[in-house]
């Protein structure tokens, strides 16, 4: 059976599934329930200086639901912990003593002065926690006070605070990044320059979830006024995966440990982050929506998949997909696929035809010989896969690569050759254009 244990910047845990800093990790009661359920670690809800912040006493959450009421996107206008520092520190110490084998990381956010960071780090060290995570990500409330994403959006501040923290603690320092930036590599590089041991990402995405058209106010609202909040949940996973990959493949930050966060609900979501370079993953929304027991499926699913693939430990596949992430200009323009419809599975709903006919390439029939039939016209199909996206029957439409055959649309032989945009004759900037060998031999399509 696969070994799920991890050693992340010296922090050991029985599995890579950690709870992200948020309400599920706000107090001993929750964290102990989580550990009993099997979570490998937690990042304690962000601590700040006393007196504690004050949250609104009203709706703090907004959501985008799918047609089946599944929560696809979730947002919040909560702040960091609103419990006294002393209480949190005492509970962290008690829980860590009881659960020695689990990772206990403490999230922190204090004003941007060296004294503030030095003081809180000393107090966290006394709890015997395994590490700290610097919350440079929260996009609402705290950022207006010069903390959270107000720090994370300025690489110089990220570097400065990371450096202070490394100077004033022996604990590993993880910098949690905000996605509300133009280029995620910049704050990650700054964290590295500051000496941080790792980065975690993403925190929440700035958002207004809905407008209440009766109240004429953003939802959630407090007495008729609303504010932007931070969005998370499955809808942000693609953003988080891309940012994880950008850091994992950047020349400057390559190899820097990453804790992946954003929309993780299943073992497969987690494995995707890990394939893109994350050594551990963190979960918030899925735990809030479905409860702590989801970790059971995560552990068994990951373990079964690793057994199937022959990976005996997590590090065997962490980062494996990174070499296959490239820039658009290096994609093979000589590769080609065609859509193929499984006529037995097709329920003749016509959605593929309408999508392709109205908005794409007019490459799917709706009538053949006077009979309702959906067939791909290979002479027109560009292989864009819109039809497969809209088809309600899973795997009814598949994309089939051409191999050693003529593409009926272009009239060109597809023979496994490789030519990217930097080599393409249509690119005026191409230094050494590579022409098709077969161009002269083949008739272009009508
Ligand atoms: C209600 C709520 C409160 C949160 N509070 C914090 C916090 O105090 N500190 C922090 O670093 N991140 C906080 N987050 C962000 C999460 O830790 C996490 O980065 C984000 O939700 C993305 O993960 P998810 O898609 O699994 O929810 C909070 C998220 C939610 C939903
Ligand atoms: S792959 Fe694109 S072009 Fe081809 S049939 Fe489907 S929608 Fe049309
Ligand atoms: S969308 Fe799918 S099921 Fe509907 S007609 Fe097209 S192939 Fe058939």
General description of the model:
The chain has 12 helices and 24 strands. The strands form 8 sheets. The chain has an 8-stranded parallel barrel, surrounded by 8 helices. Helix 3 crosses helix 5, helix 5 (155-168) packs parallel to helix 6 and helix 8 packs across helix 10. A hairpin with a 2-residue loop joins strand 20 and strand 21. The protein folds into 2 domains: 6-324, Aldolase class I (TIM Barrel, Alpha-Beta Barrel); 328-423, Alpha-Beta Plaits (2-Layer Sandwich), CATH 3.30.70.20. With 446 residues, the chain is α/β, with parallel strands linked by helices. This is dihydrouracil dehydrogenase (NAD(+)). It catalyses: 5,6-dihydrothymine + NAD(+) = thymine + NADH + H(+); 5,6-dihydrouracil + NAD(+) = uracil + NADH + H(+). Involved in pyrimidine base degradation. Catalyzes physiologically the reduction of uracil to 5,6-dihydrouracil (DHU) by using NADH as a specific cosubstrate. It also catalyzes the reverse reaction and the reduction of thymine to 5,6-dihydrothymine (DHT).
List the helices and strands and how they pair.
Layout (H helix, E strand, L loop, with lengths): L5 E3 L2 E3 L3 E3 L8 H10 L3 E7 L13 E5 L5 E6 L8 H14 L4 E6 L5 H12 L5 E5 L13 H4 L2 H14 L4 E4 L8 H9 L4 E4 L3 E3 L2 E3 L4 E3 L1 E2 L2 E2 L2 E4 L4 H13 L8 E4 L5 H9 L2 E6 L1 H6 L3 H16 L27 E5 L9 H9 L7 E2 L2 E2 L13 H5 L6 E5 L3 E3 L4 E3 L32
Parallel strand pairs: 3-4, 3-18, 4-7, 7-8, 8-9, 9-10, 10-17, 17-18
Antiparallel strand pairs: 1-2, 5-6, 6-16, 11-16, 12-13, 14-15, 19-22, 20-21, 23-24
The structure holds flavin mononucleotide and iron/sulfur cluster (2 copies).
């Amino acid at each position: 059976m696969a070994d799920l244990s991890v050693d992340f910047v010296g922090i050991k845990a029985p599995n890579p599934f950690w709870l992200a800093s948020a309400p599920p990790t706000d107090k001993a009661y929750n964290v102990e329930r989580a550990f009993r359920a099997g979570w490998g670690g937690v990042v304690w809800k962000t601590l700040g200086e006393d007196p504690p912040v004050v949250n609104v006493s009203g709706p703090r959450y907004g959501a985008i639901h799918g047609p089946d009421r599944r929560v696809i996107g979730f947002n919040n206008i909560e702040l960091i912990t609103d419990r006294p520092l002393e209480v949190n520190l005492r509970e962290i110490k008690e829980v860590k003593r009881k659960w020695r084998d689990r990772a206990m990381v403490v999230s922190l956010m204090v004003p941007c002065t060296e004294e503030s960071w030095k003081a809180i780090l000393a107090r966290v060290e006394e709890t015997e926690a395994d590490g700290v995570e610097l919350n440079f990500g929260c996009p609402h409330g705290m950022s207006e006070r010069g903390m959270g994403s107000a720090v994370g959006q300025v690489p110089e501040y990220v570097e400065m605070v990371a450096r202070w923290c490394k100077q004033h603690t022996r604990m590993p320092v993880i910098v949690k990044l905000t996605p509300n930036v133009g280029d995620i590599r910049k704050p990650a590089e700054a964290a590295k320059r500051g000496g941080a041991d790792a980065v975690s990402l993403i925190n929440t995405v700035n958002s207004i979830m809905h407008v209440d058209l009766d109240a004429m106010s953003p939802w959630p609202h407090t007495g008729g006024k609303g504010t932007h909040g931070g969005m998370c949940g499955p809808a942000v996973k693609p953003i988080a995966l891309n940012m994880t990959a950008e850091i994992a493949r950047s020349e400057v930050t390559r190899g820097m440990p990453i804790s992946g966060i954003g929309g993780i609900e299943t073992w497969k979501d987690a494995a995707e982050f890990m394939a893109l370079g994350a050594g551990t993953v963190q979960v918030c929304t899925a735990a809030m929506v479905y409860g702590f027991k989801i970790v059971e499926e995560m552990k068994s699913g990951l373990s079964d998949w690793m057994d199937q693939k022959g990976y005996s430990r997590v590090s065997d596949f962490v980062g494996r997909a990174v070499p296959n992430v490239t820039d658009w200009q290096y994609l093979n323009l000589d590769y080609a696929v065609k859509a193929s419809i499984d006529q037995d599975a097709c329920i003749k709903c016509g959605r593929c035809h309408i999508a392709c006919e109205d908005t794409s390439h007019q490459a799917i029939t709706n009538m053949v010989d006077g009979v309702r039939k959906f067939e791909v016209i290979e002479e027109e199909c560009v292989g864009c896969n819109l039809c497969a996206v809209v088809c309600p029957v899973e795997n009814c439409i598949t994309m089939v690569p051409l191999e050693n055959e003529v593409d009926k649309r272009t009239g060109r032989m597809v023979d496994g050759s490789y030519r990217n945009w930097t080599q393409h004759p249509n690119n005026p900037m191409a230094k050494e254009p590579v022409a098709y060998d077969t161009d002269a031999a083949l008739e272009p399509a009508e």
